[in-house]
Amino acid sequence: MAQRPSTTRRIVLAAQAVGLPTRDTFRVEEAALPALTVGQVLTRTLYCSADPGTRSRLSPGASYAPPLRIGDPIDGFAIGEVIESANSRFSVGDIVATGGGWAEHAIFPGRGYIQKVPHRRLPLSYWIGVLGVPGMTAWFGLKRVAMLKPGDRVLVTSAAGPVGATAAQVARSLGASRVVGTASGGDKAAWLHDVARLDAVIDYKTTPDLVADLKGACPDGYDVLFDNVGNAMIDSVIPLLRPGGRIVISGQLAEYNAAAGRVPGIVNTRYFIASRLRMEGLVVFDDLKGFPAAQEELGGMIESGHVNVREHRYRGLEAAPQAFIDLFTDSAFGRRIVEVSAEAGLGQAQ
Ligand SMILES: NC(=O)c1ccc[n+]([C@@H]2O[C@H](COP(=O)([O-])OP(=O)(O)OC[C@H]3O[C@@H](n4cnc5c(N)ncnc54)[C@H](OP(=O)(O)O)[C@@H]3O)[C@@H](O)[C@H]2O)c1
After folding, report:
1. Element (H or E) spanning 279, and its range?
2. Looking at residue 58, which CATH number applies to its domain?
3. CATH code, domain with 265
4. Which of 62, 84, 265, 316 is 20 to 30 A from 307 (CA-CA)?
5. 224 and 325 share a domain?
């Protein structure tokens, strides 16, 4: 077996982002891998992901996680092989999903997010995608926050992204009577129609009348808005919600790069009274204890073909910043997965 590495390469914050992040926001550095202390685990990264939520940490501002400082490693989600363990729960050779971030090796510090991948029936990358945080956000957003009921009419924004596509398909599997999505571009619309089997897809970028299109796609109104994009969209949809309607605040893709003070407000609050509406956000880690059962059920939906998964892959650690920037600029879609090192070497290489 190869020697344990004493250093690794990782990506750190080079400059705080103003507006859209650029390649100069990040840099690659060599970092030491010190001896493990009790509870720690050393992993070799196989895959890491580009997550929109990282944007809120690249500049100062309100977020549920503190902003990164210059020189801090970018701590996204990763799938790794355990190559050294000082933690009785993990053995060399285990495959784990962690917050190990954009690095060729990572040390799990002993507490925080780590989950052993329980089986190999599905691609390993799914455990940082549809069976990881994005999928769990869709799952608990629908089940716990929206309290989805059979027959509900559901609107999902950024419907072609990993959270949105999972939410739309899970909603259908759980008995929604109509599922509508917003997405930009013909390729996404085609996939959402033909593969994910949504009832209607609206291109919010090209439509001359978004509200008319949203109404036309579901004339009786929506019971649930699963929103990934932010206030302007929510405000447009509020008047279209049926009595007892629920809004799930999952994310704010349209607002992450906005200058302070330039985020639109929500004005249609009067509908909350007459229609008894409810709006609630979620931080998916609040539902961590429920992940294994949800992953089992959602995994079954994938294996039976009821939930389809799309990935967009990048090769090599250096590609992680571009994968992240592309979230906001590129028309490709699906979970953005960076292949950091080969699965082929599992159990051998370090
Ligand atoms: N609450 C939680 O615990 C939690 C956990 C994980 C993720 N999230 C959130 O869930 C949301 C979706 O995440 P994801 O990983 O599935 O990402 P995603 O939807 O794939 O994000 C990329 C997509 O966002 C859309 N987008 C980018 N800029 C936009 C803009 N200015 N206006 C509207 N849409 C824009 C684009 O699709 P279109 O142009 O087709 O819309 C783009 O393809 C994010 O907001 C993320 O932060 C929340």
Report:
1. strand 278-281
2. 3.90.180.10
3. 3.40.50.720
4. 316
5. no
Q: Are residues 273 and 151 in the same domain?
A: yes
Assess whether the C-beta atom of 137 lies below 6 angstroms from ligand 1: yes
What is the distance between the alpha carbons of residues 9 and 338, in angstroms, rounded to a whole number? 14
pLDDT value at residue 349: 46
Please check whether residue 296 lies inside any domain of the structure.
Answer: no
Asked whether residue 303 is assigned to any structural domain, the reply reads no
Residues 137 and 275 in one domain: yes
Q: In whole angstroms, give the CA distance from residue 248 to residue 55.
A: 20
What is the chain's length? 350
pTM above 0.90, yes or no: yes
The domain containing residue 61 runs over which residues?
A: 7-129+310-345
- Ligand 1 proximity of 16 Cβ (cutoff 6 Å): no
Judge whether 304 lies within some domain: no
Q: How far apart are CA 15 and CA 22, in angstroms?
A: 10
Predicted local confidence at residue 263, as pLDDT: 93
Q: Do 158 and 217 fall into the same domain? A: yes
Does the Cβ of 321 fall within 6 Å of ligand 1?
no
Mutate which of 131, 158, 237 for ligand 1? The one with the most ligand atoms within 8 Å of its CB, which is: 158
Closest CA to 245 of 229, 266, 223, 263: 223
Q: Which residue's alpha carbon is nearest to atom 18 within ligand 1?
A: 161
- State which of 163, 249, 337 you would mutate to test the pocket of ligand 1, scoring each by most atoms of that ligand within 8 A of its C-beta: 163
> Which pLDDT band holds residue 62 (cuts at 50, 70, 90)?
low
Domain count, the chain: 2
Tens of pLDDT, residues 247-284: 999 999 999 999 878 899 999 999 999 999 999 999 99
Q: Which residues contact 334 (CB under 8 A, 6 or more apart)?
A: 160, 161, 162, 165, 309, 310, 311, 312
Q: Taking a C-beta distance cutoff of 8 angstroms, is the pair 152, 145 a contact?
A: no
**From 228, 235, 280, mutation site for ligand 1 pocket: most ligand atoms within 8 A of C-beta:** 228
**Separation of first and last alpha carbons in the chain:** 8
